[in-house]
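Example 3.2
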Amino acid sequence: MQIVLQPRGVFLPVAALALGAIAVLAFAPFGLFPLMPLTLAALFYLAENQRPQRAFLLGWLFGVAEFAFGVYWIYISIHLIGGADLWLAIGMLVLLVSAMGVFSASVLWAAAYLAPARGWLRYLVALPALWALIEWVRSWILSGFPWLSAGYSQTDSPLAGFGPIAGVFGIGWTVALTAGLLALIAVPARGRAVSQQRMLALAALILVWTLGFWLRAVNWTHPAGPPFKVTLIQGNVEQSTKWNPAAFTTSLERYRKLTLAHLDSRLIVWPETAIPDWLRDIAVDYLLPLTDKVVAHGGELVLGVPVYRARGDAAYNAVVALNGKQPQFYFKEHLVPFGEYFPGPQWFRNWLKAMGLPYTSFTAGSSSQTPLDLGGFRAAVAICYEDAFGDQLMRMLPQANLMINVSDDAWFGDSIALPQHLQIARMRALEAGRVMLRATNTGITAIIGPHGQVRKRLPIDRIGVLSGKVRPYAGATPYALSGDWPLILALMGILVGGIMAAIFRRRRQRDPIS
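Structure, written as tokens:
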């Protein structure tokens, strides 16, 4: 006699919370990537044959635990570094975590209506498609927060091979599909039909992972020039002193000395806001003499610095490229809500300014910005967490030959946010088939290859210089050419087909004679 486990009562919510917490271990810095499909498989099974409200609760608890353990570092940013009151930091973290739980909850709620019972419609159609779609929605709704999308956990797994074809959400779909296949294989049941179903699910599972492994070896892009030396500078300026006028001279001198020691580099990159002052106030006495020395040795300097434009009274979080000619700029397009701009009406922002109350208000850069022309190659640029929005970087391809991300992750201390952010940058390199140069203030500064592999990196919280040889790349991956829309449309089509199949089956159950 075979016993079928059907957990009920208090065990269900506790199990959902535990699974969400365990899922965090699939991401950097832990890197236990099999845990992502395993925890999803268990979650999908827990919600089987549950009422929609109950399924929603289980999904919400899973998401709450995953984000509570996965993005706790927001508390560090707001309270320990930003100096906000403890109650405000905890309140904002609780609000964010609660909101993130709604996304995974929505998946299980919708699946409870579409396909509540065990079978291919639930595990191979509804849940995988819904999971990938809801992660895509999470990446753009209300400015977007794509952190901890399932695909990021697979940068070192065979499933990463699907990245250049369908991006991080395509990988996320294969993760959820794997979870569905595992559920069909592992759920106890009896009968010949069930045995055949298990064999087919096992064969499909092997096929998906084998295909991903094979795709990892495909070179979608190719070198477009000889290798050249790059130098990435990690100034390690503490956030508590970075904007302090007393430490300003020390910070500038540190970057100057580290730059002059590596004038043999073709490209030198400083982090986000490496210069904590307006470009107009530091250009003549500091930057121009330094740039002249870099250019005299055949190099170019790319750095992060705030830029103010009197025309339009606009302030930008910017990257500037200096090569002795006309400066080139990239203005950050995807600003951080409440961190770099106040998401409220203009009259309220004007009132805050008139009252002298503190708030940050950068202006967003245009969505039509082009790659920086660095003489012989072009670079797509992302500032800070902009690299979490793959569609934004892909707009600069295939024109761009490499990618640059400058960041200041000192806002998150020595937390798991830093390796998580590096993992996101790795995914962008993988999707684009381009080298990614990542220069950060306190870490993790790294050179990432076109398959998403970390070639070289610096330790966290150390003053350091990372130099290496890289090559520009040409060509385009399928994902760089098409973006997310082919996947999204395909998943919507799968869902529509699943809904029609569910309706047809229910009609047959009501009227078996017809």
